[in-house]
Amino acid sequence: MVSQFSSLENALKHFFGYDQFRPGQKQIINEALNNKDLLVIMPTGGGKSLCFQLPALLKPGLCVVVSPLIALMQDQVDALLDNGIGATFLNSTLNRKELQSRENAILKGKIKLLYVAPERLLNETFLTFLDFLTEKIGLSSFAIDEAHCVSAWGHDFRPEYRQLKTLRFRYSMVPMFALTATATKRVREDIIEQLGLENPTVHLASFDRPNLYYEVQAKSRRSYAQLLNYVRAQEGSGIIYCLSRKNVETIASRLQQDGIDALPYHAGMYDDERAINQTRFIRDDVRIIVATIAFGMGINKPDVRFVVHYDLPRNLESYYQESGRAGRDGESANCALFLSFGDLKRIEYLIDQKSDKKEQKVARQQLRQVIDYAEGTECRRTIILRYFGQQYKGNCDNCDNCKNPKPIEDWTIEAQKFLSCVARCQERFGMSHIIDVLRGSKKKKIEKYGHHLLSTYGIGKERSIAEWKMLGRSLIHQGFVNETTDGFPVLKLNKYSWEIFRNERKVEIAVTESLTSKALNDYNPRKAESDLLLDKLRQLRKHLADQNRIAPYVVFADSSLRLMAQIKPQTIDAFKKISGVTAYKAQQYGDSFVSVIREFCQQQSLPTPLPTASNMITLQLYQQGLTIPEIAERRNLKESTICTHLAELINMNQPIDINRFISEEKKAMIIKCIETIGDGSLTPLKNHLGDDYSYNELRLVRAWYRREKD
Ligand code: ADP
Ligand code: ZN
Fold it and tell me: Which residue from 9, 254, 312, 525 has the fewest beta carbons nearer than 10 Å?
């Protein structure tokens, strides 16, 4: 094991606050520590970043991270800084002075992770700087994020990525780490080839995202009302994808009118307007973003709780990427697809307009796969993972088809009526016409063709149009009748149709019941007690995030907040044990969170904690008249820990006189500062007051202030 940690788990807790590795992470990190070249393929939200970040922190030297998007860099660097980790980025948004001061910090060895865009990395001035760095502090590795950008077979080819191979020649001893969420074999091989990875270990993680609930809803006539219902039943942030800009605008403004915080996002808006909406979404100023697929690339928000596709996605791969933006933090999240055959017809029409026959064919095949997914009655996960070449055991218990399997009914007789009507109409008509004939419609078109004289005219009155459509779709889907796709869709019989006529084949279909979603059924307006606390913690998180101008999830993940609401830690020590809380974060935010939790427990008259054993020892030594450094020495603890004890003791109304530790003037200054900028977090106080004031002093005075105020 490298450096001061006894295990990788300890290092994980220290730097990131997590208790356990996600699947694959530990093995990958071990390989990285052995300086192997690596290719890591994990689905979105799998936890790729940590795989190169942790080794970078454990190895000497600098890790250079190549990332294609400025927003992504900014995001990752924010998150690292908030964990007290030395990270920075260099890109075109910085002025000369900023660049200089960052380069200085790098040269002083204060930075472990440096993010750069490929075009900057490869310019000669920067390479010279890297040469210098190699000499001075050494390079620990290159991490190429979104590595599929190197491949023309990927969905986001960037020519600059092609030149990254230069790094391999110029720094042949520095291991290279490539990461992507794109799973196809072709892209994988291309990455290895194009980057010049040497005998790399390839980690292909499972593409299953067990925390995502998949469902498909038949889009009703009143589709907006259906969407509104869905959204009302959801919690937290969500993305609604629409196909057209016009739809995006309409839906966003209707949601606003219905009192739901939503903003639009599409390529037709001005850049700055778009950027503002995106930031407001990431910072939780608004709950919902309604967007075309222009939105998402480079959005790192891990706490998106639901993604709705209000219109059909183009293909299953993009559906998986887009819906996969939900629940990256591993907490449960919902993915819903609204399916309408009207939309389907519109897309088919658009495909028909394409002039390139090959493109047309590919587009049709992709659409077919989306429909297979949406109309399928087996486990949704099984269908998706099969698409990615992965076998899944089935029955995931976390999709609509597994949760509420549609009842299967024998509709052989109806199928015979339907198919014989297709035959009588001489296989020259589409589904709507066939249904009109079956139901004895009085439309002109029927008389025009003399179809009111057919023996099948009016033999299907007992079923509704919707039911006949359901049967028709299912027959097509099961391959029992064909539908032409060139131009106007016409139904054609095939050999299975004939088997059905001859009673050699039964027709069973999955019958759709009413179209309510799982979330709607589970919806419970009453909030449990821990939900109340969770709300308070969320507000605090938002407040602290705004103060520091970062996104709330950077302060703490949803999962950590949930644990706080459950466990209700009332001391800093207990708080530190929560997964996602590092010592650094406890120092930065611990007091604020613990005091909200305490206040909540007092209001609910849950027991307040008595001083812990450790606090009691500090109290005794204090009562013997020892100073803080003396207590620290005696107990072999840090001074900051002793101050935390004292602050907690003050909080519990124990007789601690802080005047023993701080002068009247200093105390007065700190109080004045608290009264102007608030007692939430210590960092702003510290920034304001400067080096003459220590965190320890601030902590003690704040504790005293809070007690006096009550
Ligand atoms: P990816 O890049 O693979 O989409 P990220 O690296 O952004 O995923 O990780 C997604 C989220 O999961 C982040 O919020 C990250 O902090 C969190 N995460 C990563 N590893 C762990 C872990 N071992 N335990 C808990 N959360 C983790
Ligand atoms: Zn399932």
Answer: 525
Residue span of the structural domain in which 134 resides: 2-204
User: Rounded mean pLDDT of 70-93?
Assistant: 89
CA of 194 to the centre of ligand 1 (A): 27
> Left, alpha or beta for 690 (phi > 0: left; psi -120 to 50: alpha)?
left
Distance 401 CA to ligand 2 centre (A): 6
- Using most ligand atoms within 8 A of CB, pick from 329, 331, 553, 578 the residue to mutate for ligand 1: 329
* 397 lies in the same domain as 426: no
CA distance 515 to 147: 41
Find the 50 Cα to ligand 1 centroid distance in Å.
Answer: 7
What span, in angstroms and rounded, lies between the C-alpha atoms of 294 and 394? 33
100, part of any domain: yes
Task: With respect to residue 374, please indicate whether it lies within any of the assigned structural domains.
Answer: yes
Is residue 77 within 8 A of residue 102, CB to CB? The reply is no
- Residues 71 and 150 reside in one and the same domain: yes
505 and 539 belong to one structural domain:
no
What ligand 1 atom has the least distance to the C-alpha of 12? 23
Q: How far is the CA of 561 from the centre of ligand 1 (A)?
A: 16
Give the percent of the chain with pLDDT over 70.
95
Q: What share of the chain has pLDDT > 90, as a percent?
A: 60
- Is the pLDDT reported for residue 34 higher than 80? yes
Listed residues 461, 479, 510: the one ending a domain: 510
**Which of 219, 41, 216 is closest to 146 using CA atoms?**
41
Residues 641, 694, single domain; the answer is yes
CATH number of the domain where residue 681 is located: 1.10.150.80
| Per-residue model confidence (pLDDT) at position 528 | 63
Q: Would you say 51 and 212 are in contact if contact means Cβ atoms under 8 Å apart? A: no
Domain count, the chain: 4
Which residue CA neighbors atom 5 of ligand 1 most closely? 47
Of the candidates 542, 518, 77, the residue with the CA atom closest to the CA atom of residue 332: 518
User: How many angstroms does the Cα of residue 158 sit away from the middle of ligand 1?
Assistant: 25
pLDDT of residue 522: 40
Pocket test for ligand 1, best of 26, 50, 203, 578 (most atoms within 8 A of CB): 50
Task: Single out the residue of 49, 44, 15 nearest to residue 32, CA to CA.
Answer: 49
Is the model more confident about 603 or about 555? 555
Atom of ligand 1 nearest to the CA of 19: 24
Tell me the β-bridge partners of 38. 177, 201
Name the phi and psi angles at 369, rounded to 5: -65, -35
Which tens digit of pLDDT belongs to each residue from 603-638?
Answer: 877 666 677 788 888 888 888 888 999 999 988 889
Confidence check: pLDDT of 298 > 80 = no
**d(C-alpha 710, C-alpha 468), whole Å:** 69
Please tell me the number of the ligand nearest to residue 398's CA. Answer: 2
Taking only the tens place, the pLDDT of each residue in 362-393 is 888 888 889 889 988 889 999 999 888 788 88
Which atom belonging to ligand 1 lies closest to the Cα atom of 16? 16
Do residue 192 and residue 224 come from a single domain? Answer: no
Q: In the structure, which protein residues have their CB atom closer than 6 angstroms to any atom of ligand 1?
A: 18, 20-22, 25, 42, 44-50, 302, 328-330, 557
Do residues 257 and 113 both lie within one domain? no
Q: Where are the beta strands (DSSP E) in 103-181?
A: 113-116, 139-144, 176-180
